[in-house]
Amino acid sequence: MDMKVKKYLRGEGANLEALKDKKLKGQLAVKEELYGKSATAAAKAEKWLMPSEGGYLEVDDKGIEKTWRIKQEAIAREVDILSSRKQYDIVLPDFGPYTLEFTSSGRYMAAAGRKGHLAIVDMKNMKLVKELQVRETVRDVIFLHNEQFFAAAQKKYPYIYNRDGTELHCLKEHGAVLKLQFLRNHFLLASINKFGQLHYQDVTTGQMVGNLRTGLGRTDVMQVNPFNSVVAVGHSGGTVSMWKPTSAAPLVKMLCHPGPVTALAFHSNGHLMATAGMERKIKIWDLRKFEVLQTLPGHCKALDFSQKGLLAAATGSFVQVFGDLSGSQNYSRYMNHSIAKGYQVKKVAFRPYEDVLGIGHSMGWSSILIPGSGEPNFDSWVANPFETSKQRREKEVRSLLDKLPPETIMLDPTKIGTVRSTRKKEQPTKEDKEAEMEAAIDEAKSMPMKKKTKGRSKPSKIAKKKQEAVEKAKKPFLEQQMNEFSKKRKLTEETQLPKSLERFVRKKAVVA
């Protein structure tokens, strides 16, 4: 328990004995006591509410064994029976290559074959919920807000189906879509078609929220940042552009690679982004500074971050997993896995709340065990893998009530709800201006005059000088009144002028 409390403390406490100020010493003592109480409460919550602990592969301290040399067969022999069942291969050579998608709870998986095969699988019971053959090309598949609805990017248009395989909608406005993404907090379906057009459609009302032209050519590399719901698109020129539905121009345009961008992924905290290019390099970016943190060698066709920050990269029939085990944002090789020779990987996706990596390839799909990849404890209010139909309906109603408008999508969502620090200066009233002018006049009248000789201190001369001082004090106030009057007059002339006489108004000279 003491170790858990130490984990939640805010570092070393202040040295109160060295302070001489009694008031400051008392305030810091109270704060240190509050920090200790909050750390103890957090440790108790972790003990009772989060009993499971995540762990990674461990080898001997001598450095002879390496984690990436451990095979899946060795892991399957050591784990329990339920975990060993999560390691399998589904071979469907007639319909591949396959792409995969998991729900936010990790309970259901949607698999789509390039040659028209669609399937929904219950991963808890390992049962096939529904499968159908659409008899045309399927490029991508995505779940909507829950497992009841999913969208498939088919040959000409994207279609929306329900869990029973019934076609609900044909979204003809999107065109021939190459990639689909769903913004869960905003209920927006985002798609990029073969002409480089980015569409946003509200699935609750059916309204097309945004139709944007990227102007950077055809691409099938698109991903949503889970932190701020900004859509990032990778282009053939090596740039990554970030978009929101209410802006016709990209929020950010980054030059990430000298050649085409082949894959893109975001960390669950939203601050890290991984990109892969044709020059055989994988770059990890800090989105708070837009700087490269690390460059890893290797060609990559698919990328994905797990909930605990592991990065999976796939190319050909080889899958490599990188891990930041030290917490210093320095990724190193963690695990390797080779599929049967000739299988070409198309998609890698970590299953939420499980130490499982799903791999979609040209001959079906596979599932392998990656220790430490999933979050060991789930919050039933956020994602519940064991939710009942009643809980699902209530959650759907709550999420619809909490739906965010598209205008809230921005790079830094923490700015929403804040108040601007700069305030407009209050304009002085007419009485204030008159009082200020009278005070300046009184000050000019009471100004003492120097006594001069040879008739220069006559009463008439003194009165004249005082009158000049009063006029000089009045001058700035009168000029300000004249400027305000001329502005008002100009505005009234512009607004009250009839349309038939507008052509006779003298126009301002345009400076070239």
From TrEMBL:
PROSITE patterns, alphabetized: WD_REPEATS_2, WD_REPEATS_REGION
Pfam family name, one: BING4CT
Gene Ontology terms: cellular component: nucleolus; small-subunit processome
UniProt keyword terms in alphabetical order: Nucleus, Repeat, WD repeat
Record bears the keyword Repeat: yes
Location in or out of the cell: Nucleus, Nucleolus
GO terms (BP aspect): maturation of SSU-rRNA from tricistronic rRNA transcript (SSU-rRNA, 5.8S rRNA, LSU-rRNA)
Entry-linked PANTHER family: WD REPEAT-CONTAINING PROTEIN 46 (PTHR14085:SF3), WD-REPEAT PROTEIN BING4 (PTHR14085)
Protein name: U3 small nucleolar RNA-associated protein 7
Source species: Nicotiana tabacum (Common tobacco)
